Amino acid sequence: MRVAVIQQHNSADLDDNLSRSMAKIREAATGGAELVMLQELHRSLYFCQTEDTDVFDLAETIPGPTTDALGALADELNIVIVGSLFEKRATGLYHNTAVVLERDGTLAGIYRKMHIPDDPGFYEKFYFTPGDATFNDQRSGFTPINTSAGKLGLLVCWDQWYPEAARLMALAGAELLLYPTAIGWDRSDDNDEQQRQLDAWITVQRAHAVANGVPVLVANRTGFEPAPHTTRDSDGIQFWGNSFICGPQGEYLAHAGQDGEEILIADIDKRRSEDVRRIWPYLRDRRIDAYGDLTKRYRD
Amino acid sequence: MRVAVIQQHNSADLDDNLSRSMAKIREAATGGAELVMLQELHRSLYFCQTEDTDVFDLAETIPGPTTDALGALADELNIVIVGSLFEKRATGLYHNTAVVLERDGTLAGIYRKMHIPDDPGFYEKFYFTPGDATFNDQRSGFTPINTSAGKLGLLVCWDQWYPEAARLMALAGAELLLYPTAIGWDRSDDNDEQQRQLDAWITVQRAHAVANGVPVLVANRTGFEPAPHTTRDSDGIQFWGNSFICGPQGEYLAHAGQDGEEILIADIDKRRSEDVRRIWPYLRDRRIDAYGDLTKRYRD
Q1: I need a surface site. Which of A32, A92, A132, B227 has the fewest CB within 10 A?
Q2: Which residues of chain A are within 8 Å of residue B282 when distances are taken between CB atoms?
Q3: In chain A, how many domains are there?
Q4: What is the pLDDT of residues A142-171, one digit of tens each?
Q5: Is the pTM value of this prediction over 0.90?
Q6: Which residue of B has its CA nearest to A285?
């Protein structure tokens, strides 16, 4: 199965961002991709550099304009599209939500970001309610989305630092892990620190592939976005790109550069997960009798 | 705090292996190391290439000859030593056990390997009972060991593939994660596969540092050990070395080569874990309300 990941630079022009994303999706589909993933919050600038109530105007419902547009495109191209948007669930209740559109344009499912960051320049806790732990239909927040391109373990950005999230998706049968992302550097950090952060980010996600024997797709934003005048203490963010696709041993199948827009394309052989898990059978030996304390905040 | 990791080639001569280990510990201590870790089962060949009841003769009690020897050396050098041995707990009850000797020669604690592998050439399930999930004193199997060199999150080899184990140690206050290891290649695998396996092994352990904001020490064996004549289907193991020490962002502090014995020395700055965890506060945002299924074998 051929998959694609789109790494994009955004501006304040919502329509232009979306139309450029859609042009890239077309290009990926022309290249044979059956599954195309966009980066986190791909319709706008990364607006969490400041806490501003006016920003909630950017939020939209599901279904809404972004799912309508991506659904129509998925239908036209006969591919599965993974998008990410600022969801208005109710008045005063918003989420950072990834959406999956099926080949026929219908909504295959959504995933509401479970782990919400908050640090200088990334004030997400102001905007996003964390995804529900469980839903009324008994689904867990960490439930893969069934599609014609496989069972997608869709997670978002800050989730990528949590091995628990990746594992729960794998235990529920996810065949791929997908991370729409918006992460970058504070330009006041020195080069060594920036390199450590980037390496850590790549390493922890490749490790999810390794620990679970599944491919991982990561779409990150690129380019510099200055801090809005309303910001507290962010100097802007240099998004670090480096989107990648890796196989079930964490091996790179495609890897984007830091700057510049890219369409990454790779062929995923699902048989490799079967083969890798037979000879590296981590799921066989999990000590579930001894993992109870993982649900504690701290073991003190 | 200066720490050291010893990467060694072993032979069938138990006394020679241990005396060479001890010489290297002396050398590390002379270089200023306050904490020195040996590789997994450092007193013998990696005997799990075959299933042979005579091999149980290699097992020893705790305390026993290895803890006596390492304890005396720890006392003499005034350092903390982490060793690894084949433990006879009772007749017919054996473990793969890491031991920690304090600066005064006393036994600071033990850790019995929780996840036991079994694949061609690594028939560990024949020899080792998995460590207890909980003990009569209410300790969990994943409990760090308090020492004068810090709280040691000691795990062994196959444990290194399990993010759950690293997390449980970190949640219990481990300041370092330590992995005595014996892992290598089946020489019948091609070079690409061998490289993927090595990269996966490095990646997953560096990721434990990242996800938990703690340094990681890994001691692996080096050299080729042929399969015993009693083996089923192993062609021998080419142990891949590559012992390493990394900081709390997964950054290398020291990294050994594939072949040859080495003493890795690095300075660990515990303040860096404090700093890293302040700005990358993963522990703050864990979704413990949604992690319950981690204690399931599979979510089906």
Answers
A1: A92
A2: 161-162
A3: 1
A4: 999 999 999 999 999 999 999 999 999 999
A5: yes
A6: B115
